[in-house]
Design a protein that fits this description.
2 copies of one chain form a homodimer.
Chain A: H1 2-48, H2 52-63, H3 71-86, E1 91-103, E2 109-114, E3 117-120, E4 123-125, E5 137-144, H4 147-152, H5 155-158, E6 162-165, H6 176-195, E7 201-205, E8 231-234, H7 236-248, E9 254-259, E10 263-277, E11 281-291, H8 301-320, E12 327-334, H9 342-353, E13 358-364, E14 372-378, H10 384-393, E15 401-404, E16 421-427, H11 432-435, H12 448-468
Parallel strand pairs in A: 5-6, 6-7, 7-8, 11-12, 11-13, 13-16, 14-15
Antiparallel strand pairs in A: 1-10, 2-3, 2-9, 4-8, 5-9, 10-12, 14-16
Helix pairs in contact in A: 1-12, 2-8, 8-12
Amino acid sequence: MVSSFNNILSFRMKLISNLLLILIPFSNSFAQHSDSIVVRKIYDEALLKGNSYKNLEYLCKKIGPRQNGSENSKKAVDWVKKQMEQYGLDQISLQEVSVPVWLRGTKEKAYIIDNKEKIDVPICALGNSLSTPNGGITSEVIEVKDFRELKQLDTTFIKGKIVFFNQIFDPAIIETSDAYLKVLNQRLNGASQAAKYGAVGVIIRSLTPSIDNLPHTGIVEYDVALPKIPVAAISTKAAEDLSKRLQQRKLPTVKFHFEQKCETLSNQTGHNIIGEIKGEKQNEVILLAAHLDSWDLGEGAHDDGVGCIQILETLRIFKKLGFKPKHTIRVVMFADEENQLSGAKKYAEIAAKKSAETYIAALETDLGGFTPRGFTIDTQQKSLQEIEEWSSIFRQYGADKFVKKETKGSDIHWLRNQNTILIDYKPDTQRYFDIHHTALDTFEQVNKRELELGTASIAALVYLIDKTQ
Amino acid sequence: MVSSFNNILSFRMKLISNLLLILIPFSNSFAQHSDSIVVRKIYDEALLKGNSYKNLEYLCKKIGPRQNGSENSKKAVDWVKKQMEQYGLDQISLQEVSVPVWLRGTKEKAYIIDNKEKIDVPICALGNSLSTPNGGITSEVIEVKDFRELKQLDTTFIKGKIVFFNQIFDPAIIETSDAYLKVLNQRLNGASQAAKYGAVGVIIRSLTPSIDNLPHTGIVEYDVALPKIPVAAISTKAAEDLSKRLQQRKLPTVKFHFEQKCETLSNQTGHNIIGEIKGEKQNEVILLAAHLDSWDLGEGAHDDGVGCIQILETLRIFKKLGFKPKHTIRVVMFADEENQLSGAKKYAEIAAKKSAETYIAALETDLGGFTPRGFTIDTQQKSLQEIEEWSSIFRQYGADKFVKKETKGSDIHWLRNQNTILIDYKPDTQRYFDIHHTALDTFEQVNKRELELGTASIAALVYLIDKTQ
């Protein structure tokens, strides 16, 4: 009997497991099908009735650039709060952040002195740079590609001179954000490295693959153990001209002059803005991150007005389509990403004290508002196969490049742990660094459709994560 | 013995087949690896030493728009020929084509008459359209979405009036080129359809998802059996304004006036330009197609200056890297794609007589110079798996979206047969129809890096096809 019972049991088990084998794919494909329908609704809402473009226009044109401590930065916080209220979010709050304040001052001046000729060139001070002394700095120029080359020079040769870092943004690297990271240290650390050897000022080649007349700003990080010297970025066209003149003439017939009147004031109070739709599991959070501050040049459109608008619009779409999320969907627009990440640090500090809250996922959008390509997924939890299941839904929308690797998002990196899926939204970035941190980062550079497609991709992925986690 | 011999044989066969199973993937991956190295060289040449951007600048800025019969179209042929000579191609020839000549004449004028108010609106005559009578046409307006709606109207209601086709370019369709094909018939056939019911003129909403002030030209195809009436495109913003006024007021208080002075001259001689690198198998051809003609508005940059530059640059890269192709790599820049495809027809007619020549593949690039996404592959020969093998090489370049389906390329569609692989180059087209056939289709709208990446993708695929076919 036992044996026969076992046989029957074994037969039944086989039957059930075979049935399961048949049914599981069906249930998967059924779930996929119903997900596809919701995703289509999200895209339709973003493309046909979206607020992305008009909101971005308001942020860029009615408010403008949003540097730490500026009147605009306060106006922007007020306006975002009002938008969140209008969209009927469950909770809206402001988090006070002590932000550093740096002012560019009057427009910078610079020229090359080549024998008796003076050639004006476009520069801009780097964020946090010192002012030049009254009357500016005029000096011979030492051109180097990188720190290694600088280190090999005779120290006496550098003393009292301007060091010119002319490392190019490598056009052969396909991902522009990778090429950017390869040259970033000349902007971050060039000033201190040159000061170590007695330089009086530093000029860096702007971080862009484009050869044009736009100087690109961005933060300099002074080494506290070293003297601080003024540093500015020069346009790539002028950098090439300066380099050519230095090669053609023998030193010291070529000199450089630059003047900037920037200053660092005492810290002010800025704000992280937080808006959320509460989930059934209120303490399990999906975080959407962007930064509301921007450089003073341009209008902070692609960097990162676009990101703020996209995550705000994600919440509006969720409300509009009547989604009741399982997890709390929380948008945070951080203060001060561009200077010292004080907004992200403050948020992390407070979050660490709320032991009841856990983060299911955190998605950052800070790579511009161009055509969506996909997402970078940083996870120890999800298998490649599970990620590919998500990505397949995005194939018809052209946003299906899901890559499993470490994310770069500067406002969410503190959340890297075993339990949180970190995500960077990846638009096409081929033209991003042409305008990054320049006067050209304006509303006009954002294409309505590309922006809306990006919004839809983000909202759709948030929907899928909320549903499947 | 026999049995034992058979056993040994069977064992040997197994061993061999197992070895093959081990070795084949190696040899495949070895081939893939060496292909990857060559592809990388192609990208480096295009990105670091490319001529694409400066050539496009010359074509757009030193020559300009290249309408059939224009002086510019002749200059462009001469210039391309000179470039081909400079690149040391094996054969360069011109093919005479009788091209239709249509002139826009003095700038079009149009306004809405709303009670006593006159509101100027931007329009442009469609290519091949009739002129309006002296003094223009002033009439009541009948707005319809499509031919079905037109057909349902009372004929007496249409007689003597202007029909306004206001079908929107659907923003919910993700592929803009699909959305374009869905509304194209209002531009191609709207005039004849309205004339059938006695309309005196036609205004069509410009074929673009963007809401702006730019009218978009393009060809009208008159039905020879029906009366010909003048037709113009109106900007989308003005179309929406006109539609709103028509809905708000009762007819006939809203009227429309338009004037255009276009004319059709007798045919002239244009040219297809052909340049090639001869292959070992001289009569087996890989054809690269683009069109050198353009509309008179703008500079014919994205449409299709970019395509011409990319295929020209493909030959330059082949020469520069010293490739000796197995098949003849032939570039054809066709005359008159925009009007009657007379260039493609002439080429096809002559090709049909050269029975010794066969076409391995034909690739067309005529969807703009934006970031590459991949290729549409139209083939009865190649399996999906073989195509995926190609596409895997393009993954790191972001150009790996290889879709097996019918291509749209208007200059190569006559080659659709069992033996030829037809290919459309697919860049990102989200912003393409914002500028398509408008005054904004200028050099400034093309991004250097995106153009060069497109060139490299095309050259790399041509290399792979030549090698593997």
